[in-house]
Amino acid sequence: MQEEKNNGITVHMVLGMGGLLLVMAGVFKLLLLVMDPISYALSGVGLAFVIQYIYTLEKKNGVSSAFQWIRSAVMIGLFLLFLTMYFVAN
User: Fold this and answer.
1) Could you tell me how far CA 33 lies from the centroid of its own chain?
2) 20 to 30 A from 26, CA-CA: which of 15, 38, 59, 78?
3) Maximum Cα interatomic distance, the chain, rounded to a whole number of Å
4) CA dihedral of 74, 78, 81, 87, whole degrees rounded to 10
5) 45-88 pLDDT per residue, tens
């Protein structure tokens, strides 16, 4: 029973990470079109708050710290990949 609960939580966390990456990419694409420095700061702080909230909820659900570190490394890697693709394309 506990194993099924952990698998369900893991699937939802992976989907949440993908959704967060898509939202982040959409926000930064919109900001590139608008070119407003205050919007950059507000969206960066807002995303940091959302990510911190998600990590806090995961700790309360008993998610292992190894999974959180792996997920953080994947998110940072994908973000750097998006930035590299953007700057190479322009």
Assistant:
1) 21
2) 59
3) 51
4) -140
5) 887 888 888 888 878 878 788 888 887 888 788 778 877 877 77
Count of domains observed in the chain: 1
Q: What is the DSSP string of 66-86?
A: HHHHHHHHHHHHHHHHHHHHH
Tokens of 38: 């205050």
CA distance 8 to 90: 41
Task: Calculate the CA 81 to chain-centre distance.
Answer: 14
68's tokens: 């959180």
Please give the residue range of the domain that contains residue 79.
2-89
The residue type found at 9 is: I
Rounded CA gap, 23 and 27, in Å?
A: 6
